[in-house]
Amino acid sequence: MLTKHGFLSKVFVAEEPAYRDVLEFSPDIVSYSCITGEQKWVLSSIRKLKDLGSRAFFVVGGPHPTYFPSMVENPLINAVCIGEGEYAALDLAIAFEAGEDPYRIKNLYFNVGGEIVRNEVRPLIEDLDSLPFPDRSYYDRYRFLASNPYKTFITSRGCPFQCTFCFNHVLQRMYGNASRYVRRRSPAQVIEELKEVNAKWGIREVRFSDDHFVLNVEWLRELVSLYKKEVGVPYSINARVDVLDEEKIALLKETGCRLVCFGIESGRELLRNMVLKKRISDEQIFQAARLLKKYKIKFLSSNIIGLPNEKAEDAWQTIEMNQKIGTDLPWFSMMQYYPGTEIYDTAIREGLLDADYDVDKMGSYFRNEYLKQGNMNELRNIHSFSILVSRFRFLEPLAKILARKVRPNRLFQIIFKLSYLHLTFRRSNMGVLRVLHGWTFYRSRIFG
């Protein structure tokens, strides 16, 4: 958006040389995209740039300040962006260029000498085709990113479902339950972006990272028909099993879909639907798995351990469901209780979290050390063995004994990390050296 309107901008991947590069570039505005769990690092990075002499205006956007806008109260920060950032960023740049007061820009909260200025959010961007394509040339200076043949695209925004552990129900409330919360780009525009990226950088595989790729069958038919003719490389998607019927799966197979990712979350239907509000039955999971197997499309399942009042047998039931359906890539996280979500309110109400629980204690999605539940050590151990036992059922009896009788330890963590690395190899469809490079590049963000 900034480049389209004539502003000079650069992206710096935060490694040690980047700080010198930022100072040399001498920007008026420095912005960070921040997910929850990275906020401490963001603040330390801003402090370092200021200590090195930067006089920039510091803005933090992304999921964390959207849901925890109190971040703006930290004196290191000049502003935070709430929600969609394209037009807020553009308005801020225009105000700086014109020397005007920026403090009434919608979607931005400001810290003006300790006084907090809170502005309302602007309406959601309904016409996604009106936005410029992401400028991937920003990353040309980082060889690992620029040469990655596994490219990610987003064709929509929003999710209509109300899962208690997810952010979407919170965001919908923030925007007044907007009638057009779920928005899609046109198939023709998506294909145009794909062709442009392929011409400039080359694509070996496409990752569509939309929350739900197959909700609208008419849109799907049009997109994949164009995709097969004009792009034609393998791709992967996210979906819900309750909307994955045979017609859609056949379309995906015919047009080169290699991998479908869907959420099981819990193998116990009562937890899945009463606690998490997934509203997905066991039979729908088994039926989707059967169809994907029939059409020879691999699938990744996402699963959660550490739910409120979850028993060890519930967690093992989740692993056993993955065994039964033959999950190709079983992905497991520990439950993260984000303040503001419905499941967080449940945990507080049931006394499983301290009333003054601090979101700054949260780490990566593979750790949960703050839930006050008597069996958490066993649940953490089950998580350590989850990927391995999902793939190799004969290890389950031994894993159950170790999970119950041994405290969490470094060896169990290593077992999980090696299992996760093996899963990453199998998911990525890329060479060993590239995956290992990516592992070293991202490991601190993955595991905390």
Describe what you observe in this structure:
The protein is α/β, with parallel strands linked by helices and 448 residues long. It has 2 domains: 16-118, Rossmann fold, CATH 3.40.50.280; 128-447, TIM Barrel. The protein is built from 17 helices and 13 strands. It has helices spanning 16-25, 39-51, 63-67, 86-98, 143-146, 168-174, 187-201, 217-230, 246-254, 269-275, 282-294, 312-325, 342-349, 376-391, 396-405, 410-428, 432-447; strands at residues 29-33, 57-61, 79-81, 108-112, 115-118, 150-153, 156-157, 183-184, 205-208, 235-238, 257-265, 298-305, 329-334. Strands 6-9-10-11-12-13 form a 6-stranded parallel beta sheet. It has a 5-stranded mixed beta sheet with strand order 1-2-3-4-5. Helix 7 runs parallel beside helix 8, helix 8 (217-230) runs parallel beside helix 9 and helix 14 packs parallel to helix 16 (410-428). It is globular, with a radius of gyration of 23 Å. The two termini are 32 Å apart.
| CATH class value of the largest domain | Alpha Beta
The CATH homologous superfamily of the largest domain is termed: Aldolase class I
Q: What letter string, H or E per element, gives the SSE order?
A: HEHEHEHEEHEEHEHEHEHEHHEHEHHHHH
Low-confidence stretches: 444-448
What are the SSEs and their pairings?
Layout: H1 16-25, E1 29-33, H2 39-51, E2 57-61, H3 63-67, E3 79-81, H4 86-98, E4 108-112, E5 115-118, H5 143-146, E6 150-153, E7 156-157, H6 168-174, E8 183-184, H7 187-201, E9 205-208, H8 217-230, E10 235-238, H9 246-254, E11 257-265, H10 269-275, H11 282-294, E12 298-305, H12 312-325, E13 329-334, H13 342-349, H14 376-391, H15 396-405, H16 410-428, H17 432-447
Parallel strand pairs: 1-2, 2-3, 6-9, 9-10, 10-11, 11-12, 12-13
Antiparallel strand pairs: 3-4, 4-5, 7-8
Helix pairs in contact: 7-8, 8-9, 12-14, 14-15, 14-16
